[in-house]
Amino acid sequence: MRLGLALGYWGRGPSADHVPLALEAERLGYDSVWTAESWGSDAFTPLTWIAARTSRIKLGTAVAQMAARSPTTTAMHALTLDHLSGGRVMLGLGLSGPQVVEGWYGRPFPKSPLTATREYVDVVRQVLRREGPVELDGRFHSHPYRGADGTGLGKALKPITHPLRSGLPVLLGAEGPKNIAQTARIADGWLPLYWSPMRTAVYEASLDAAPEGFLVAPMARAKVCDDVAEGLLPVKAMLGFYIGGMGHAARNFHADLMGRMGFEEEARRVQELFLAGRREEAVLAVPDAFADEISLIGPRERIAERLDLWRKGPVTDLLLLSPDPHTLRVLADLN
Question: Luciferase-like domain: from which residue to which, for each copy (predicted)?
Fold first, then answer.
């Protein structure tokens, strides 16, 4: 099981720790470093900054949001950075949800998310393969554009720049069972949002079609500390925000996932409290058991025991959310 460093997205401003953390992860032998985006900083610019300071570690987006860019634009970002970094890019993509897609990007959330994702990946693959002009008569992504409001003058094109790698890995963030099953068919890997090594049966059926070499790369917050309850507070804060605030009361993929993992009643309670403006109560309502299952928190010996559970499942890459160099060193030593 390879280790990766997940840096997430910026908050109010850039973190001065991200480059030093990436350098330390590379020194420790971590396989990859990952950036993200929500509705603030983008994923590719910080990753390029890190690429310029490192030499070996792989560079991943977890995730770049599909609604933020056309698929050809995303492919251009990936192939450009792949050249500049010497072939180190791993392209992680995610559809996001209706609240973000329509509220931030000002675009309709696709009525058929599976089709939209499949078409997006198809176009990205065509650009990276560069076998001919990009052509797709898609429901959501047409190349050339054939809409009634177009000029009809669009021409199928292939990229001027020759991609460094036609097989640049494409991973997808997916939560629903059908979405995960499609990911196993069309992508090189899957980026689970929550992963419990104690509940791998939740995903078994969806991963049946996964080919050999398919990557399973969940994120987990890690912290070496004596007080487990205190160490879990950032995990619970994250869960409270995602389950309560990253979606509508009637359509929240994160709350639905927590429900499928056996915490349906607790997820709805967190959502109710958050949407009522009682955010601190929402965070405290996140079950310690759930937060603990999806993270690696506690003394070194406890983390060592729990790390064994992660190794026994299908996880190929464990992406650690940890702004603490000491924790990164301990995990490198234990792995």
Answer: 16-315
Give ∠ CA 19-22-233 in degrees, rounded to 5.
95
Phi, psi of 224 (to 5 degrees): -85, 115
Distance, in Å, from the CA atom of 228 to the CA atom of 289, rounded to the nearest integer, reads 11
Residue 324, Cβ density class (10 Å: 0-12 exposed, 13-18 middle, ≥19 buried)? middle
User: What is the DSSP track for 164-228?
Assistant: S-TT--EEEE--SHHHHHHHHHHSSEE--SS--TT-THHHHTTTTTPPTT-EE--EEEEEE-S-H
3 state DSSP class of 94: strand
- Tell me the CA distances in angstroms from 50 to 77, 195, 307, one per residue in order: 15, 27, 28
User: In terms of DSSP bridges, do strands 219-224 and 89-94 run parallel, antiparallel, or are they unpaired?
Assistant: unpaired
CA distance 7 to 23: 12
Upper half-sphere CA count for residue 60 (Cβ side, 13 Å):
36
Tell the burial category of 260 from Cβ atoms under 10 Å away from its Cβ (0-12, 13-18, 19+).
Answer: middle
What single-letter amino acid sits at 209?
A
